[in-house]
Amino acid sequence: MVFGNSMFCCFARDNGRLVGAGRVLADGRDCAYLCDVAVLPSHQGLGLGKQIIERLVERSRSHTKIILYSVAGREPLYAKFGFLRMKTAMAIFRNRQSAIDKGLVSES
Q: CB within 8 A of 54, min separation 6: which ones?
């Protein structure tokens, strides 16, 4: 399970039912990677995602940098938490052409 291998996890529940989650992969000092923040559509707009992000960022503050991979269009949300656009990020995707077609990466 991916959450078992994460340094920090945050879960939101509604009457015992999991409705939101997020996690941080980290080395304990230099780099923390905030990933997989998700809230069920039925619970979006209630501030749960914001609370998950705030808690994970706070728990990661001792790291030199906190990195986030965002869905395109969500950047303004993360900017509210202090995230800045990176100019040097690169990625290898299993389905390279699909990532290019979606505009997630470019070949240039």
A: 81
Q: Would you say residue 106 lies in a domain?
A: no
Does a structural domain hold residue 62?
A: yes
DSSP string, 57-76: HHHHTTSSEEEE---TT-HH
Contact (CB, 8 A) for 49 and 37: yes
- Per residue in 45-82, pLDDT (tens digit) is 999 999 999 999 999 999 999 999 888 788 899 999 99
pLDDT score of 6 more than 80: yes
65 located within any domain: yes
Domain range holding 43? 2-101
Q: What is the mean pLDDT of the chain?
A: 93
